[in-house]
Amino acid sequence: MSNLDRVAVPAVCGGRGFVVAEPVRELLSPRRTRLGETTEVRRLLPNLGRRMVGAWCFIDHYGPDDIADEPGMRVPPHPHTGLQTVSWLHEGEVLHRDSTGGLATIRPRELGLMTSGRAVSHSEESPRSHARSLHGAQLWVALPDRHRHADPRFEHHTDLPVVTAPGLRATLILGAVDGTVSPGSTYTPLVGADLALARGADVTLPLEPDFEYAVLSMSGEAYVDGVPVTPGSMLYLGCGRAGLPLRSDTGAGLMLLGGEPFEEELIMWWNFVGRSQAEIEQARTDWTTGSRFGVVDGYDGAPLPAPDLPQQPLKARGRVR
């Protein structure tokens, strides 16, 4: 998934100095932005008040959209460095192509996981023949310094492990919950899980006290640690929790996102995650001149041009503004 803003604003992220070390209930509202010609997304990270949750550094929630008579998602080939992209669907399909030769149609509750490493490019689009509805989330995970220059790779996991409890079905996207582990590759202590709450559910989900957490509401009405969350909002929970109370009277879909607080400070500009202005400038130059990022075969359209760099210097700072 690309950040398609034509005036890309740098986000300064990382470092433990702004991690909330105790449990909190901080409700984050999204910023609405366009993704291509037909898709509107609700951007939860980076947020005005918070930049990261563990290594999670970018979260878009979109849909449900009726695309029966529309082309649906169309994101042209674009570059990434220093991160992993996570494609997660509740409805519809997304056709993924990348410069490693990766090609997959991602369907609901399947994991599309691309590790950019030093450089990769990819496109995402609704298949020509597609379902009526499109609903999902696109997320990025920052890679630590020791892994961010590795070879790019793509993983497509169609059969993910599930944890169940009365009223709860949790599908493991990344990391582990209650001893059950996802097959997706991770490079920092991290967790991502899709939580389906049945009507009348009242359950406590076990957590790691050293992780910081947030819950993204995908659909329905739920109470997270007593706080009502509605679709398109995210509740930041801080650290220091051994369990998370969840309740829904009507049924709901949530995403649990968390991880060990990310120690390294970094710069996120457009679709690049780096550590210095020179590194970001070089990545932009390489994409503009057609080097380093490879070629995405099969997409019917031109690659996405890079926006202009901002006038102000890019500096790595903290996790919150």
From TrEMBL:
Domain of life: Bacteria
Keyword annotations: Iron, Metal-binding
Residue ranges annotated for the Pirin N-terminal domain, each copy included: 41-141
Cofactors: Fe cation
Keyword Iron: yes
Cofactor note: Binds 1 Fe cation per subunit.
GO molecular function terms listed in the Swiss-Prot or TrEMBL record: metal ion binding
Ranges for domain Pirin C-terminal: 193-292
TM stretches of this protein: none
Binding site for Fe cation: H78, H80, H122, E124
Family: Belongs to the pirin family.
Record-given protein name: Pirin
Native species: Streptomyces ruber
